[in-house]
Amino acid sequence: MTVQPKRTLKVEKLARIYDDEIAPVWGTRFGKMLLRNLAVPERGQVLDVSCGTGYPTTEILRRMSDGSRLIAIDASSAMLDVARRKIADLGPLGKKGVFFRTESPVPKLSFADDVYDLVVCNLGLTEMPSLEVALRDFARVAKRGGEVRCTLPLAGTFQEFHDLYREVLIKHDKHEALDRLDRYIARYPTADQVDQCMHGANLEGDIEVEEFTLLFKSSREFFFAPVIEYGPLAEWKEIAGAGQEMQDVFWYIKEAIDAYFDGRPFEVTVKAGCLIGKKVEAREQDEMELDLDGAIEEIDEEDTGLPARPRKMAAGSVRADFQVEEVDADDEDVVIDEDSPEEQALDAFIEGKRRPSHLDRTGPFDEEELETAGHERAESEDD
């Protein structure tokens, strides 16, 4: 059974935002890694999982020969509508064998075993509850000798922000929030962990790693950039706590960013990974059938030693949560939890909102700490 969220006006709007503002700085950069040296076999069967708004789907289509077929799936029909329009704009090229289907890959793909010559997934792994279980399922539908290519953000992504967030929590004795932050950061897999999961999925290959940076003029620009606002921000809010506790933490974070990076851009690093693996003969210890029919909550990662994936990783994704069925836009009984961290606006960025009087007068860091940080920055830049 597949889970297909209902359409809402919000989802349609977010699909446009993703394609116009997030994909150029996020999905496209990962997608270019996926496309590097990619060749589609003659009359090849290709599956694009979580294809989003159609990149790299359109580029894969350009590399397909006559007789090849491409199946592109996504849980969001709004995303697929954008992708379909892109294919239509290709003219005769768009009439090649490409088929779209609204389908979630969770808990498992609906396709039969050993069907596809090539399975690709650009950033979709970040939405799945288990990296290894997802890779095993991708390998299941691939032919023997077929190729699986996937991209995902790795450990070290947004490290500058995470370090600053940790400093704020330590400074203000937010121990529970600090534990939540550390658990969240640990969920970004390392290249070695991805390699371990590939091995467990009977995929023989390697993972390529590249770094790129995102620049923001201020804390306001950072938090309101679509790649942040519609990506990891909701999870970061939940880490801070609820209500005024969350607001206080983000006042401190805002002030820390603006103080540390006064007069220069706030630069954050993204560590992008692209795994490329060939499906090989199952090793004897891996020949047991993987049961993917159970509920997602029952997936156990103890065998791999990897923590569960975060609900919303820093993927800049605006796809619907696979676990929550959306309601129709015309439904009068729609109830939104305005007190949830995700729905709460950040007071620190509301015009005219005064800084709470109960916050430390010195802000997140005192003058001596800021001066020390300034010297450290200057020394690192000189190096």
CATH class of the largest domain: Alpha Beta
The CATH superfamily of the largest domain bears the name: Vaccinia Virus protein VP39
Tell me the helix content: 25-40%
Number of strands: 7
Uncertain runs are: 1-5, 293-305, 309-336
The number of domains: 2
What topology, given as strand order, has the largest sheet? 3-2-1-4-5-7-6
How does CATH name the architecture of the largest domain? Answer: 3-Layer(aba) Sandwich
Per the CATH scheme, the topology name of the largest domain is Rossmann fold
Give a short summary of the structure.
The protein has 383 residues and is of the alpha/beta class.
Please give a structural write-up.
With 383 residues, the protein is α/β, with parallel strands linked by helices. It has helices at 9-22, 27-35, 57-62, 77-88, 131-141, 159-171, 175-186, 191-200, 219-224, 226-229, 233-240, 243-260, 367-382; strands spanning 45-49, 69-74, 98-102, 116-122, 142-153, 203-216, 266-279. It has a seven-stranded mixed β-sheet with strand order 3-2-1-4-5-7-6, with helices on both faces. Strand 1 (45-49), helix 3 and strand 2 form a beta-alpha-beta unit. It starts with 8 loop residues before the first helix and ends with a helix.
